[in-house]
Amino acid sequence: xxxWFSRVALSAQTATEDRLQQQLVQQEQTIRIDNVNAVELExxxxxxxxxxxxxxxMKVYVGNVLQTCVWxxxxxxxxxxxxxxxxxxxxxxxxxxxxKLRVTAPGGPDETxx
Length: 114
Description:
Helix content: 10-25%
Number of helices: 1
Radius of gyration: 19 Å
Largest sheet: 5 strands, antiparallel
Structural class: alpha+beta
Strand content: 35-45%
Distance between the termini: 63 Å
Strand order of the largest sheet: 1-2-9-6-7
């Protein structure tokens, strides 16, 4: 019984530590909207945290409509956003003046108006 209990306790401790580490990484995956170009239908996002962000974990909304992004950095396709760098999402919906544009990342959202 002692061996079984020890294994269960160790397994629970490991799972808790893994979840805590994951949450700490997510808290450092923060972003800021640098620029919105409503004419070209693109938004430039800067990583403000200390952890890289996968573009798959970021979402862009115009109004409340989720956008499909073509992610580029320096004109080339991009899959991650390293700390301190920028990435651009080219989207398809129009972004009329005054429409809310929101970008979400694991560490939290940022929003502005078009």
